[in-house]
Amino acid sequence: MNCEKVRELLLTDYADGEIEEVERKEVDKHLEACPRCTEFNSALQQVREPFRKAGRVDVPEEVWEAIKGEVPREAVGRNSAGAVLSGIALFVRAHKGAFAAGVACVLVIGAATLSRIDFYGNAGSAELDAYLEEQAEFPVVNNGSMDLGTTIEEFFL
Fold it and tell me: What is the DSSP string of the chain?
């Protein structure tokens, strides 16, 4: 088991006690052999220790009622279109900058693509066909050497 996998498990299943016995043994074996992961595990234990020692606080029922009153009730079911749109709107609000940058990129790429499309079917098609034919020609081999027919080739050869 590699360090990355061990650290992932230390942060999740291993810490929660939800790890399979086989995986737990592999993690323990890795921790015995790897000082960096052992140090990582020790640091995690120090961070978690205050939370383990903290006692459970019973919240009065009126506090829970106040919280429940502040949580908006969904007027529509979870699987309805309204819930999906609400989720999308929440996502967009939470990630405004990234969403705006993504929309800008799509618009720029779309505009660039649309500007290259010949909607009328005749503008520049002859020039394009001629260019493609010229590019598709193969160089001619004369006497075992390839003649590209360029001035620079003639200069150096």
Answer: --HHHHHHHHHTHHHHT-S-HHHHHHHHHHHHH-HHHHHHHHHHHHHHHHHHHSPP-PPPHHHHHHHHHHSPPPSS-TTSHHHHHHHHHHHHHHTHHHHHHHHHHHHHHHHHHHHH--SSS-TTHHHHHHHHHHHHPPPEEETTEEE---HHHHHH-
